[in-house]
Design brief:
single chain; about 80 residues; alpha+beta; YefM-like fold; three-stranded mixed sheet; elongated
């Protein structure tokens, strides 16, 4: 994760905001060598959780057929 001093951030604020928006990577702002803030790109939250992960997950293999393995509780 990229870090920047608070004084440098103050001088280049608008440029750094554009860079974070384009790259999608957060920026840690430090003061006296210690992190004090994090600039992250804005990602709007969906109105509902239903369908929020659509297109982000993939199913690999057959998830419906039995595993042909005995479970510990059945033994």
């Amino acid at each position: 994760m990229k870090t920047i001093k608070a004084s440098e951030f103050k001088a280049r604020c608008l440029q750094l905001m554009d860079e974070v928006a384009q790259s999608g990577k957060p920026l840690v702002i430090t003061k006296n060598g210690k992190p004090v803030s994090q600039l992250m790109p804005y990602r709007p939250k969906p109105a509902t959780l239903f369908g929020a992960m659509k297109g982000r997950l993939t199913v690999q293999g057959d998830i419906l057929s039995p595993l042909n393995e005995d479970w510990e509780v059945l033994q």
